[in-house]
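Retro notes
What went well: the complex prediction finally ran end to end.
Inputs used:
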Amino acid sequence: MLLSEIPVSGPWGERHLLGLEHLSADQLKTVLDLAKYYDTITNGGSQRLDVLKGLVVANLFFENSTRTRTSFSLAARRLGADTVDFTASSSSLSKGETFIDTAQTIEAMGVDLVVCRHRTPGSPHLLARNLKAGVLNAGDGTHEHPTQGLLDIYTILKQRGQIAGLTVALVGDIRHSRVARSNIHGLKALGARVIVCGPATLIPSDITRLGVEVAYNLDEILPEVDCVNLLRVQFERQRGAFFPSISEYAHLFGMNGDRIRRARKNLLVLAPGPINRGVELTPEVADGPNSLILNQVTNGLLIRMACLTLLAQERRHDQEAN
Amino acid sequence: MSSLVISGGRVIDPANSLDAIADVLILDGKIAAVTRRDAGFAPLDVPHGIPVIEATGRIVCPGFIDPHVSLREPGFEEDECTATGTAAALAGGFTTIAAQSDTYPVVDHRAAAEFIRLQADRARNCRVYPLGAVTKESKGEELAEIGQLVQGGAVGFSDAKRPVANAEVMRRALEYTRMFNRPILHFAMVPELSDGGVMHEGFEATRLGFRGIPAAAQDIMTGRDIALAELTGGRIHLMCVTTMDSVERIRKAKSLGISVTADVTPHHLLLTDEVMRSFETMYKCNPPLRSQEHVDALIAGLQDGTLSAISSDHQPLALEKKQVDMDTAPFGICGIETLLPVCIRALIEPGHLTWLQLIARLTTGPAAILSVNHGTLSVGQPADVTVIDPAKTWTVRAHEFYSRSRNTPFEGAKFTGKVVTTIVDGEIRFQNNRQPIPD
């Protein structure tokens, strides 16, 4: 199957995928539809295609990640692309210009798409300004993580058939979460009601301007929500203590069996992972029937295949135009 | 010695409340006469053979004074040196600057202050007065040798961008400097609240995921400094005020007769934190660009004189230092050459300030802060004069800067108003007749 034969259901037109904030509902649906298409024709992503044959996808990870990097690598290979991995330890990043230099060096080797993760917001945007290759943001600091947002949305969509009208609670460390920001933008664009819930120290007060509601009491909102997305406590991004103890956090905001029993019966439980068992959720919940944690991982592959395909098509158009 | 006539310009001299078409006669490097052309005034009797600068349609005013400019020499010559920084100052219309102490080594001893004056003499551009450090190595722990720094020419004391966080140390510094009647130029910021931040804390920082620097970090320290100035009777000058509440605290303190002054930078008057959406490191400065409500308060503070000076807060940085990610990039804007047009855009064009008010914030205001005897066209004063073409439109091209650095957020911006001639001691030290430099 050729790249040009892949059915695209709606508008796209983006050379880079840097975040969900500036994407329209129609563009989001285009990605979600394509993920669904791949879900069908590859039997959940297990079958290989060759639509990206001859393209090179570089994974440029300036921040540690095994899960996301592996998912992107696998997605690229399932589509027949060649992949190169570049990982840099955070320490070598103190000289930041090596970041642009490295990217330009890799591009000079003929890379078509760059998947970038960096600890600083805006770094993929900086790359996008300096490279001809398409840039895919795989997480920039505490800003955005668009493919995670899309895969969370796709996971909910697959269970419920639509996003509009649902109430989704993002629980935990909102302040330091790129996953929260991408989820908010995507879910709001598609018509969901979004509640952010967590310790007041981890919820910036002006977050309401993004169109979300703020709650500090998980038990109060639980009966209203269709889905909880349990964000990981970002111990590594926090300066000092934002809450008194882990056990107090788990007590107030952890998802446990009692809370599951008080929630709606078919509550969807998402967690972007890696999860801290006993903190954001208990093993009973993580491994229970409401948990979609492993579905998220599988869906991540499909979403990344869809995003790589759309950016590859734009890249192809660019090259043909020149 | 230098003699000149500046003929037919709009002469604005806030010290003498003058804003009229007039001729300025300079004899032997000093102002000899300022003669109005209105009816009822006798015309200037120009001595024979003195060169004439035709200034019709131009603004003629005292040379500008910047209370804190980072010249980066010694120690950071990759960013700037005294010769380039003072050339940039002249191009910006400045005839007097106070040089920040944030060199390496820090200007915390007399020899370092003398070196700055020596390099300024060698460069022979604008006047340069050193600022001495408040504390040794600007660490905020022990007082620097303030008395000997005064003997070395320091007109004021500052730890540049490093706040004197310890209130007891600041108290002693204010008491000690009182002896010499010198101000402390303080960067009021609570480090525990600002550390790690890269932009204004608010909605824009929330959506962009950047760590914020809350307005309260400046407000709290401003309040502390005012209380200490009141306690000690020392002179405190607050650099780079950026917040609504700080302006209000300073306004109140001044009305109570406390010895506090304050300045603001042009970029904090023209830009807001919304520009950070571009993820452009050229906008990263300290204090950060704030939101519109703060900008409005700063303008009000300039209007009523709560903020009596505008400083470029010139922070030249070698380009490669800025070509990195936002968290890694250092704070600072290379601003002295674009100060005037940015002020015109932010203050004159919208009608917030009159020309007389703007020139006052660039001359008499900073002169009073530093207690230097410049910034007027009074007869007998050294002839430091700036001539402005207020109608000239031009585009900022950083590679044409006289500064060694190019870290401007205004690259490619079109402005109206430019300095055309800068005169120090009656000598033309800058003339805007340079041909455009190709990219």
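What we learned: Residues 293-321 of chain A form the longest helix (29 residues).
What to try next: split runs per interface for comparison.
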